[in-house]
């Protein structure tokens, strides 16, 4: 991992460690074909307490997005642009980067990310 990518990763982790302080808040989630490689990061902005999440934005990479300095910088810039005061972030990859009903039929499992078939997306543990 490059120094800049590591710096960006640490900045993001520090923001998340602070916990909730105020709105607007951002949720950050990582997705990948396995529980070891994140090829997608998604950020949602929650402008105020009673507002639903909005401005869902995703970044993709063939490599791990957590180690990509450009994506890390774009993520931090995006949050700064929206005046984010709190960050809630997953501490692991929480499932396949493909979307049910968009990338593959509703009710089926992703034909590309076979790792996730029969697994709990939050723990990565087998459920079948």
TL;DR of this structure?
22% of the residues lie in helices and 23% in strands.
Walk me through what this model shows:
Helix content is 22%, strand content 23%. The protein has 2 helices and 4 strands. The chain starts with a helix and ends in a 35-residue tail after the last strand. It is α+β, with helices and mostly antiparallel strands and 128 residues long. Strands 3-2-1-4 form a 4-stranded mixed β-sheet. Strand 1 and strand 2 form a beta hairpin.
List the SSEs and their pairings.
Layout: H1 3-17, E1 25-31, E2 40-46, E3 54-60, H2 69-81, E4 86-93
Parallel strand pairs: 1-4
Antiparallel strand pairs: 1-2, 2-3
Shape assignment: globular
Major β-sheet annotation: 4 strands, mixed
DSSP strand count: 4
Strand content range: 15-25%
For this entry, give a set of tags.
alpha+beta, single chain, 22% helix, 128 residues
